[in-house]
Amino acid sequence: QVQLVESGGGLVQAGGSLRLSCAASGSVDSINTMGWYRQAPGKQRELVATITSGDITNYADSVKGRFTISRDNAKNTMYLQMNSLKPEDTAVYYCNRRTFWGRDYWGQGTQVTVSS
Questions:
Q1: Count of C-beta atoms within a 10 Å radius of residue 81
Q2: 113 and 12 in contact (C-beta within 8 Å)?
Q3: What is the pLDDT of residues 29-47, one digit of tens each?
Q4: Which of 41, 69, 79, 94 has a 20 to 30 A CA-CA distance from 58?
């Protein structure tokens, strides 16, 4: 089992920045992909960004150039630096970890609210 705990969400004005963190614990493996997903009210959960254990990254078009995903494998922690935030970035942000064998683990989510 893997436990994921997100932190860093909150309320920010448009144009501002936030940094999300996701700490993994439990039976963590060294080969995996971690990612951030978000879900706005009335919408489906969508991919924000992913990063492999080899630091290969992938971003949704809507956040490219504004968000940066990173990880510290020694600390089993992933980050999402969010700059130039827009009201449409408002959502619950979820941390995901996919093991080498394809099993998904999810965090409880952290609310990000961007006011206009």
A1: 14
A2: yes
A3: 888 899 999 999 999 999 9
A4: 41
Q: Can you tell me the distance from the alpha carbon of 105 to that of 63, in angstroms, rounded to the nearest whole number? A: 23
The structure tokens listed for 73 are 């494998």
Left (φ > 0), alpha (ψ -120 to 50) or beta: where does 108 sit? alpha
Question: Strands 10-13, 110-115: parallel, antiparallel or unpaired by DSSP?
Answer: parallel
Residue holding tokens 């996919």? 98
Asked whether residue 8 carries a pLDDT value surpassing 80, the answer given is: yes
- The label of the residue with tokens 């980050």 reads 79
Contacts of 66 (CB under 8 A, 6+ apart): 82, 83, 84, 85
Report the percent of the chain where pLDDT is more than 70: 100
